[in-house]
């Protein structure tokens, strides 16, 4: 079985009050489900989408988090263009199962079996931005915090291995139809924080 | 005098029947035609390698499931797996493909310095430190999702990840969906991959039955999905199909023979009471024959099973003799007297039939030996039932005689046969023989290709093709066998071969290969890797510099560097000894003090190039079981042909002393001519001659000689004796002739030659006497 060992690096998330609170609201009522569906519809409607991304890797053995900055574009069909500008320029083009990495002008095709972590990351990214609750229900236990203005907070807890072996939970924050932050918490205290911004769009 | 013999027969029949009934549920049916052939022609090492490969892959099955609604499939798959786990026939059901390298997973952990791929070894040795530092940092810092603590501590350069990817490489086509479920795309449809490891041999009928039942139950939740498709690959599906085919053929041959015999018996003897009596020895013989074969060989080959059904036509002969004798005696019938007169010919008959089947063992084919054991033991038990129980059960006279209609038919057929044969003069016969030889020679062709003698289920083959097109999960039959005097030398040899094999992959000779060297480095390579690591990664300061740049805390840095500076070397002897015990880990074994490694080849495209390459490397052998078997089939075809001609020569010489030259030729001619015509007929039908045709001709010779001798020796003008021979021929043709309906080419060919040959041998048999006299 392909492992997700390296996939989705470690993440500590000192959950804070708001995030802690999300886990008190499992999506198990019709009202919750309807609200989740309306958020999901808004997220889906915002495709195609492009913006900036900032990745912070927080590991307990690091004095400071590792920070990367770049941009991304996601089409309605699910193709992803992921570019990191700092600290190094690397670009990933994802089209279905095909992933191409471009470094220093050289192109390399990545197969899922060769780099399951990279493949797994983009699969998760695509699924979050094409938010389809009926698909997520089969993989995650879903939580949705009560409405606060236009912002929403959602938690996704993997139900079973192999995902549950490496990811403790995903915390997703959004505003309207735009996802603004994703936190990937590992089973230890490490975590990854992904922040998305959309200069071309007004965050409602 | 007879009583002890009768009691012996009763005891033997009862014991064998009970033993047979106990053994029947334990039958294992082998459908692999390769299992028919002798193993002595290749080395013990090749035998062991092929046994390991077969065991490893035979117990595995791969199922691909898809539907229009992928989400529904994902939701229901766990339920499918739970249901599969309920079956004792299944050891492991799992999503995705297993990996033999899992055995070494514990060794890989925290031991990066000794596990370096060729590419990383070259990179560490040849690239500048700055270049290494930059490329590694770029990889760590730009990886989507980032690197985690374990990787930073134990595999900072991702060298171990590269080694594991190579060692445990999954097929490129295998994808993982968002839920972690493995799948492949086939013709734009998503198919989830499910691997099953069986708990027992797929040849076991009990396993097959349980497996078929659990499959029907387990996949029920998916079956109602729109666009649901399941693609099955693995030996178990072929054995299931083979057993179903065998059952159908056994039914055809067994039932066909039985129905024919019932009609004949009712036509001739006009008494329903003879039917159970006639079939009791047959049933006992078939059950005992199967049980004996299972006991002797541990399994029953499909070919022996089908031949077992043909026993029906031969085993009935003993009953027919008894019925005919009683029929002929009329009201004067006394069973003890009848038995006294029959005991000698019936005993001689079973001995001669047994001897005939024993001649099959001279072929050296395990398959034919199985047929001989099954048929021989079956006939002995049928004989024992007749001798042991018939005198008691048929103690009263029959009370009727040959009907007038039947008498008329027999007279007409006999007259027609003799009339036609009397018109065939010596010159005409010569012309027929020359024409036959000419036509036969013009269309003569031989074929010793094993692949054309076995037709697998086309639906399964189509599924196999679809799956193999995307997933190379089963190796090709040819393989490379590497030999060395020690485990360490073997690993070094395998390592030395890797660059050439990789070049073979690049050149398109094969898709991929599996070698032990991919999983475990030799002791020498472990030390060399550790030296390179220590020199280029630790002592050069590369690792410390990387940690510094990444901001790893100094306490953590020291711990990581200390750990990565003290690798644990692996004792390859001890590790491979443990590995060799794994039932599903082919690739290594020790035979007579020598160590062997098997390199399995996947998606083989150009065996000739790899074979040529292997010939140039000491200690490496290219083994192609199919070519080897085809060569063997050729040798045995030639050997059987010589045996056949030799048998005719010996019979001619033996008959010469009794009948003179002309008389001997007259007796042999019907069988010889029948064989010639049968062979020409199958050639004309487009069949190429194989060892199975020649073996069938041996049977035609044996049975044809019986008919000819009967005509030569007996008063053939008697209606009752003509009827007895006619009935015997009819039952033999019914049973062996029905083999020609088999879907297995080898059985079909055998049956067709026997069918044509026996009918002609019967028709031409009167030549053995001087017809015009």
Question: What does this molecule look like?
Answer:
The complex is a heterodimer of chains A (204) and B (773). Chain A is of the alpha+beta class and 204 residues long. Chain A has one domain: outer membrane lipoprotein receptor (LolB), chain A (Clam). Helices cover 23% and strands 38% of the residues of chain A. In chain A, strands 6-5-4-3-2-1-11-10-9-8-7 form an eleven-stranded antiparallel β-sheet, sandwiched between helices. In chain A, 38% of the residues are buried. With 773 residues, chain B is α+β, with helices and mostly antiparallel strands. Chain B has four domains: 158 residues, no CATH class; 110 residues, Alpha-Beta Plaits (2-Layer Sandwich), CATH 3.30.70.100; 228 residues, no CATH class; 190 residues, Multidrug efflux transporter AcrB transmembrane domain (Multidrug efflux transporter AcrB transmembrane fold), CATH 1.20.1640.10. Helix content of chain B is 65%, strand content 9%. In chain B, strands 2, 3, 4, 5, 6 and 7 form a six-stranded antiparallel β-sheet that branches. In chain B, strands 9, 10, 11, 12 and 13 form a five-stranded antiparallel β-sheet that branches. In chain B, helix 3 packs antiparallel against helix 9 and helix 17 packs across helix 25. Chain B is elongated, with a radius of gyration of 34 Å. The chains are: A alpha+beta (204), B alpha+beta (773). Chains A and B meet through helix 3 of A and helix 3, helix 6, helix 7 and strand 4 of B. Chain B: This is Membrane transport protein MMPL domain-containing protein.
């Amino acid at each position: 079985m392909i492992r997700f060992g390296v996939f989705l690096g470690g993440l500590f998330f000192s959950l804070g009050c708001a995030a802690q609170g999300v886990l008190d609201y499992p999506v198990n009522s019709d009202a919750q489900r309807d609200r989740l569906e309306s958020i999901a519809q808004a997220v889906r409607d915002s495709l195609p989408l492009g913006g900036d991304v900032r990745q912070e890797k927080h590991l307990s053995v690091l004095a400071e988090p590792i920070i990367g900055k770049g941009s991304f574009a996601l089409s309605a069909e699910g193709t992803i263009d992921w570019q990191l500008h700092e600290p190094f320029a690397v670009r990933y083009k994802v089209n279905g199962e095909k992933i191409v990495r471009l470094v220093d002008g050289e192109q390399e095709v990545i197969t899922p079996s060769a780099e399951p972590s990279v493949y797994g990351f983009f699969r998760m990214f695509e699924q979050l931005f094409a938010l389809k609750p009926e698909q997520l229900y089969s993989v995650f236990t879903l939580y949705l915090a009560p409405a606060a203005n236009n912002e929403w907070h959602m938690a996704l807890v993997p139900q079973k291995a192999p995902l549950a072996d490496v990811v403790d939970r995903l915390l997703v924050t959004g505003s309207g139809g735009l996802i603004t932050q994703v936190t990937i918490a590992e089973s230890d205290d490490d975590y990854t924080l992904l922040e998305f911004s959309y200069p071309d769009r007004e965050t409602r | 005098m007879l009583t002890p013999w009768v009691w012996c027969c009763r005891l033997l029949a009862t014991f064998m029947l009970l033993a047979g009934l106990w053994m029947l549920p334990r039958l294992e049916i082998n459908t692999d035609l390769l299992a028919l052939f002798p193993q002595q022609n290749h080395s013990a090492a090749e035998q062991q390698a092929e046994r390991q490969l077969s065991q490893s892959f035979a117990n595995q099955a791969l199922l691909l499931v898809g539907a229009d609604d992928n989400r529904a499939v994902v939701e229901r798959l766990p339920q499918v797996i739970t249901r599969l786990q309920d079956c004792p026939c299944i050891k492991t059901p799992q999503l995705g493909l297993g990996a033999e390298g899992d055995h070494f997973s514990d060794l890989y952990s925290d031991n990066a310095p000794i596990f370096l791929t060729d590419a990383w070894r070259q990179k560490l040795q040849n690239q500048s430190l700055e270049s290494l530092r930059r490329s590694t940092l770029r990889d760590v810092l730009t990886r989507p999702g980032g690197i985690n603590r374990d990787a930073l501590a134990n595999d900072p350069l991702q060298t171990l990840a590269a080694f594991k990817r190579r060692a445990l490489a999954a097929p490129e086509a295998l994808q993982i969906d968002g839920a972690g479920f493995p799948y492949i795309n086939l013709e734009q449809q998503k198919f989830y991959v499910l691997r099953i490891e069986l708990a027992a041999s797929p040849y076991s009928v009990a396993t097959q039955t349980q497996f078929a039942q659990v499959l029907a139950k387990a996949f029920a939740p998916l079956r109602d999905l729109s666009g649901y498709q399941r693609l099955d690959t693995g030996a178990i599906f072929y054995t299931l199909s083979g057993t179903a085919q065998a059952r159908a053929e056994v039914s055809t041959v067994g039932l066909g023979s039985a129905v024919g015999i019932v009609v004949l018996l009712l036509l001739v003897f006009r008494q329903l009471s003879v039917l159970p009596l006639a079939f009791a020895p047959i049933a006992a013989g078939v059950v005992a024959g199967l049980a004996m074969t299972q006991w002797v060989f541990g399994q029953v080959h499909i070919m022996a099973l089908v031949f077992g059904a043909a026993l029906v036509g031969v085993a009935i002969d003993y009953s027919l003799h008894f019925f005919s004798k009683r029929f002929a005696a009329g009201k004067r019938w006394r069973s003890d007297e009848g038995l006294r007169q029959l005991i000698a010919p019936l005993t001689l008959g079973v001995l001669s039939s047994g001897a005939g089947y024993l001649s099959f063992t001279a072929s050296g084919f395990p398959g034919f030996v199985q047929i001989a054991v099954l048929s021989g033991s079956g006939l002995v038990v049928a004989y024992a039932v007749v001798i042991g129980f018939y005198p008691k059960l048929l103690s009263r006279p029959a009370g009727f005689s040959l009907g007038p209609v039947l008498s008329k038919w027999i007279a007409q057929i006999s007259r027609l046969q003799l009339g036609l044969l009397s018109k065939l003069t010596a010159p005409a016969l010569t012309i027929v023989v020359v024409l036959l030889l000419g036509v036969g020679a013009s269309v003569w062709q031989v074929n010793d290709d094993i692949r054309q003698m076995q037709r697998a289920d086309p639906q399964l083959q189509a599924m196999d093709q679809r799956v193999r097109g995307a997933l190379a999960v089963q190796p090709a039959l040819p393989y490379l066998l590497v030999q060395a005097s020690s485990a360490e030398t073997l690993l070094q040899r395998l390592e030395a071969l890797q660059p050439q094999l990789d070049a073979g992959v690049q050149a398109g000779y094969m898709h991929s290969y599996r070698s032990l060297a991919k999983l475990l480095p030799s002791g020498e390579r472990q030390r060399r890797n550790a030296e390179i690591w220590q020199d280029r990664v630790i002592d050069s300061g590369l690792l410390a510099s990387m940690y510094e740049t990444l901001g790893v805390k100094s306490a953590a840095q020291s711990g990581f560097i200390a750990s990565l500076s003290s690798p644990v070397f692996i004792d390859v002897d001890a590790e491979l000894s443990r590995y060799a015990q794994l039932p599903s880990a082919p690739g290594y074994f020790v035979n007579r003090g020598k160590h062997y490694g098997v390199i399995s080849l996947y998606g083989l495209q150009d065996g000739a190039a790899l074979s040529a390459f292997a010939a140039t490397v000491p200690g490496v052998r290219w083994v192609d079981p199919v070519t080897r078997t085809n060569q063997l089939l050729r040798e045995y075809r030639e050997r059987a042909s010589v045996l056949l001609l030799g048998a005719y020569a010996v019979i001619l010489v033996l008959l010469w002393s009794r009948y003179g030259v002309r008389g001997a030729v007259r007796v042999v001619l019907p069988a010889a001519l029948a064989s010639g015509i049968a062979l020409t007929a199958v050639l004309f039908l487009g069949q190429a001659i194989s060892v199975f045709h020649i073996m069938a001709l041996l049977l035609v010779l044996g049975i044809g000689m019986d008919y000819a001798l009967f005509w030569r020796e007996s008063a053939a003008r008697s209606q009752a004796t003509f009827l007895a021979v006619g009935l015997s021929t009819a039952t033999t043709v019914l049973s062996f002739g029905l083999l020609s309906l088999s879907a297995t080419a080898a059985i079909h060919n055998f049956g067709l030659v026997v069918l044509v040959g026996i009918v002609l041998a019967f028709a031409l048999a009167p030549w053995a006497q001087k017809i015009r006299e």
